[in-house]
Amino acid sequence: MSGIAAGRSVPIAEIGERVGGSVEGSPDACVRGVAGIEWAREGDLTFLANPKYRADLKTTRATAVLIAPGVPCPEGVIAVRTEDPYAALVRVLPLFDPGLPPVSEGVHPTALVSEEVSLGPDVAIGPQAVVEAGAEIGPGTRIAAQAYVGEGAKLGAECYLYPGVFVGRGCVLGDRVRVQPGAVIGSDGFGYAPVKGQYRKIPQIGIVEIGDDVEIGANACIDRATFGKTVIGPGTKIDNLVQIAHNVAVAEDTVIAAQSGIAGSTRIGRGVRLGGQSGLAGHVRIGDGASIGAQAGVIGDVPAGETYSGYPARPHRDAMRREAAVRKLPEIVRRIRALESALRRAPRTGAGKEREGR
Amino acid sequence: MSGIAAGRSVPIAEIGERVGGSVEGSPDACVRGVAGIEWAREGDLTFLANPKYRADLKTTRATAVLIAPGVPCPEGVIAVRTEDPYAALVRVLPLFDPGLPPVSEGVHPTALVSEEVSLGPDVAIGPQAVVEAGAEIGPGTRIAAQAYVGEGAKLGAECYLYPGVFVGRGCVLGDRVRVQPGAVIGSDGFGYAPVKGQYRKIPQIGIVEIGDDVEIGANACIDRATFGKTVIGPGTKIDNLVQIAHNVAVAEDTVIAAQSGIAGSTRIGRGVRLGGQSGLAGHVRIGDGASIGAQAGVIGDVPAGETYSGYPARPHRDAMRREAAVRKLPEIVRRIRALESALRRAPRTGAGKEREGR
Amino acid sequence: MSGIAAGRSVPIAEIGERVGGSVEGSPDACVRGVAGIEWAREGDLTFLANPKYRADLKTTRATAVLIAPGVPCPEGVIAVRTEDPYAALVRVLPLFDPGLPPVSEGVHPTALVSEEVSLGPDVAIGPQAVVEAGAEIGPGTRIAAQAYVGEGAKLGAECYLYPGVFVGRGCVLGDRVRVQPGAVIGSDGFGYAPVKGQYRKIPQIGIVEIGDDVEIGANACIDRATFGKTVIGPGTKIDNLVQIAHNVAVAEDTVIAAQSGIAGSTRIGRGVRLGGQSGLAGHVRIGDGASIGAQAGVIGDVPAGETYSGYPARPHRDAMRREAAVRKLPEIVRRIRALESALRRAPRTGAGKEREGR
Fold first, then answer.
1. pTM of the model
2. Do B5 and A311 lie within an 8 Å CB cutoff?
3. Of B51-65, C248-262, C280-294, which gets the smallest average pLDDT?
4. Best label site of A178, A247, B269, C357, fewest CB within 10 Å?
5. Which of C152, C167, C144 is nearest to C117 (CA)?
6. Which domains does chain B have, with CATH numbers?
7. 8 Å CB contact of B228 and C2
8. Is A325–B333 a contact, with Cβ atoms under 8 angstroms apart?
9. What are the residues whose beta carbons fall under 8 Å from the beta carbon of B338, sequence distance 6 or more?
10. Which chains would you list as touching B if contact means 3+ CB atom pairs under 8 Å?
11. Cα separations (Å) of C88 from A347, C16, C91?
């Protein structure tokens, strides 16, 4: 079983075809799942990409293995030979994909869908989901159990909201947007005007607009704009527990790793990569194709194509150089001490202020 | 429509009055939303606060603009002249505020409200919300869909819990507390006693007590006290994904930016500002009015009024000085090398140990 | 009432017995809660562990105090004398523990439990919880209101899911697993294959497997494996807002503090401690008993038993040494300047290149 909830049984021949590999062993044997070499059981497909796992192959219980030509394979394990076993694995995974969890046939009787909602064909709304008045749900979109779609929100076609997702009033999702459990789209931006030491709330009347093919991670938060919109461009992928503040604009095909945070009004280009736990100050601009290291703290603009890291973030090469210099600090202190003691001795034999009166 | 879910139509004359500005153009024209200068459409109000956007004004499709006296405004855009366009904008936003999303008329039939609950007048409880026995809900408080209020919890007047909020057993909220979607108030504190390499849970029997006018961000977590209470003072604002551990006490009018974390028993004064992703160790004290930089790691007390940053956090001025010193490290190494070569040459011409026997 | 939702009335004599202490005052008096010395009210038990709170004891309104022998205790407060008042407190807390909040008698009528579910004896499923087809729920397990258990998920005995918890399709929990509100177990791993500048989703077909006696914090996220499983070993404790990526394996009795993040395929040994907001890169190994400081950024393996801190994380002793060296930087610059000026003077009195021609 190897952890696949609704595994399909796949013949080895189909796997060989899929990866363009040759099969050594029975092509009619079937596998029902994929697993790492140590954890694989009978009925599993495994793979050998890293030579350090070669020894483990001898004891694996896997039924078949994706393996490079020429690498020894123990008897009893079917070898599917392919030049790049990891790439082959990625191609094979969809064969086992049980697809998204089923939601409901149409609207579940316990779902609360306002009468003033527009539902496209083949919409599924799960148990105890709530869809408020004025919402528009595109064809084939599925809203799982206990999810919430606010007043006037618009979801495109073939979206999938996992259980417990919140989409706030007026927010707009494109097509094929996938939102993992517990994510919040359209919470209020964090905006307050200080008045005599107290904070008065600035109404957050904007929305969030999410492009096609975006994926949003579990318990991630995207705030609505103070006015106008917070924008996530098409194809962008956002990991779990990411924070995106009001009026941020992220362009297309950008990847934002877990627990990163982006402060208000910052603009991020296309094809950018943000490492885990990175933080971006408000009102900065990150150019297209830039890369921000994990845990970096970005307090100014980052030019297109650059790699920044550290805190405050700077070009990664500089950061590495400084890192190296800091590592040398104890040696620097030793060298200064040596210089000082050399100089202290020097004057006695002719050099130094004390002898100036000579 | 610039992203306002339930926009009102506001005459320009009303805007001019609100900001005490003069109108150039038709005061009877109406705007229905607010948007940035590039994204504004017909029917929107925009503003020009930053001179670098002056060029964009020429091509904006906005109907009206908040703009300083003397700045050129293209024909066809109604100008509302005011000395500080951004401040004017903040004053104008409430005109467009659609207010909090409606929850329900009274208790929704699918809400599960225990019979042993005390409900004030004008309480609204949304679909599939759960309110357990012994809870007390103050007048005008609204509990949105799918929110949860535990046994014996007490909510004051005019609170608003967004969908999916959790308020645990016995926790207490003051008046006008607003809790964004998915926030958790009253999860167990993280307390374990190590016994022979294993961890035995210490019961977390305290509560969380939240003062008036507090706002708590989406998916933020506030743990209940081990015993006694975790306290959030009146007027304090907490952003998304913030973690507040057991027995922390935060005084009034403090602002805690997204993804910050405060470890157990730490005490934070009034009017403090914590930057995003900052972390505070347990059992430290942050004085009134202190300011903690984004991503700072605070491991000791911070005096009132001080600004701390970096890791480990120290006075910001020191941190900047050290930062500058580190930046000079490569130069320092060069200077040491120069000194060393100067000294190496020096002895040959009279100074140095080698000649001492002379 | 010091914040205990369902306080028991406990006679002082019982407390004295429990901690093996002697009682000075009426052993028949009762306390109903525990509170810190400043916040305690009549009917509370307090404790004095830290001498700096001695003054507060004079004005406390507590009924009784856990206090070391010989420390003065004001009249009117019952003293329970014990060598280690804090340890005594930990032993006493369970007396006041109201236990986990009640969930339901059996399956609540508004819960949606598929007919194809296997329920052990004494299972409780709260209002509006959803349990999908093929799930197996062990004896005595309680699933609170609004929680979600996906298709084919397996929960052991005596587990407790708080409201709003998500357990995804096929995930497996051992016995006595406790999951705080809003936690997500089994969200998709963050896996995409870049294809011509776009990201194509790699199906995440694995599961999450959680051992016995694990506790998972509020709004924490544990991703399912790409294939195979993400594993949390028995006895491990995970705090709020922690991120655990696909295919991570955490061994037993490890403690992970709030807001930490562990990237894909990293392996963590047993008895490890991760400080708050720490981040671990993917594919690293943390040896048994290692300790990672708060906010550390770990980018390579950490040997068993070592303490690492800083970014990039290194042995804590080195990090401290570097920290000390950086602190000395301004002094280093001064010393270099002194050396330079000494050398500048030196040549004039006999040393230096300028005189070589002499």
1. 0.91
2. no
3. B51-65
4. C357
5. C152
6. 10-96 (3.40.1390.10), 112-316 (2.160.10.10)
7. yes
8. yes
9. none
10. A, C
11. 68, 10, 5
Q: How far is A116 from chain C (nearest CA, A)?
A: 24
Task: Tell me the mean pLDDT in the region B4-27.
Answer: 85
Residue C354's pLDDT is: 39
Map tokens 């209101």 to a residue: C145
| Among B197, B198, B147, CA closest to B177 | B147
pLDDT digits (tens, 9 = 90+) for A52-63: 888 889 999 999
The answer to whether C257 contacts B190, with C-beta atoms less than 8 Å apart, is yes
Q: Which chains touch A (3 or more CB pairs under 8 A)?
A: B, C
- The answer, yes or no, to whether residue A66 has pLDDT greater than 70, is yes
Cβ-count burial of C280 within 10 angstroms (0-12 exposed, 13-18 middle, 19+ buried)?
buried
Which chain B positions have a beta carbon within 8 Å of C128's beta carbon?
Answer: 112, 128, 130, 146
Nearest Cα neighbor of C165 from C120, C210, C228 is: C210
DSSP state of A1: -
For the residues B191-205, what does the mean pLDDT come to?
Answer: 89
Nearest CB partner across the interface for C243, out of A101, A240, A333: A240
How many angstroms away from the CA of A4 is the closest CA of chain B?
29
CA A130 to chain centroid: 28
- C-alpha C108/C-alpha A7 separation (Å) is 32
What residues of chain B lie within 8 A of the CB of A244, using their CB? none
Residue B173: C-alpha distances to residues B145, B180, B186, B245, B258 (Å): 19, 14, 11, 17, 21
CB-CB under 8 Å, A169 with B101: yes
Amino acid at B43: G
For residue A188, what is the DSSP state? P
Chain C CB contacts of A35 below 8 Å: 227-228
Cα-atom radius of gyration of chain B, to the nearest Å?
29
Q: Which residues from chain A sit within 8 angstroms of residue C259, using beta carbons?
A: 259
- The identity of residue B280, as a single letter, is L
Q: What's the distance, Cα to Cα, between the start and end of chain B in Å?
A: 94
**Burial (Cβ within 10 Å: 0-12, 13-18, ≥19) of residue B312:** middle
Per residue in C22-47, pLDDT tens? 999 999 999 988 888 888 889 999 99
Count of alpha carbons within 13 angstroms of residue A111, beta-carbon side: 29
| Closest Cβ–Cβ partner in C193, C225, C245 for A258 | C245
- Which tens digit of pLDDT belongs to each residue from A70-128? 999 999 999 999 999 988 988 898 898 889 999 999 999 999 999 999 999 999 999 99
Q: Where are the beta strands (DSSP E) in B99-240?
A: 112-113, 118-119, 124-125, 130-131, 136-137, 142-143, 148-149, 154-155, 160-161, 166-167, 172-173, 178-179, 184-187, 192-195, 198-201, 207-210, 215-216, 221-223, 229-232, 237-238
Determine the residue of chain B that is closest to C289 in CA distance. Answer: B197
- Look at A180 and C202 and tell me if their CB atoms are within 8 Å: no
Inter-chain CB proximity A146 and B145 less than 8 Å: no
B38 CB-side CA count, 13 A? 6
ipTM over 0.95: no
Q: Could you tell me if B214 and B234 are in contact, meaning their C-beta atoms sit under 8 angstroms apart?
A: yes
Strand C10-11 with C30-31, pairing: antiparallel
pLDDT tens digits along C159-180: 999 999 999 999 999 999 999 9
Residues with Cβ within 8 Å of A338's Cβ and at least 6 positions away in sequence, in order, are none
A203, B159, B248 from B241: Cα distances, Å: 20, 20, 16
* Residue in B151, B205, B206 closest to C101 by CB: B151
Residue A350 has pLDDT above 50, yes or no: no
Alpha helices in chain A (DSSP H): 12-19, 54-59, 85-96, 316-327, 329-345
Place of tokens 């921000």: A292
**Least CB-CB distance to C221: which of A219, A329, A353?**
A219
Q: Which residue of B has its CA nearest to A336?
A: B336
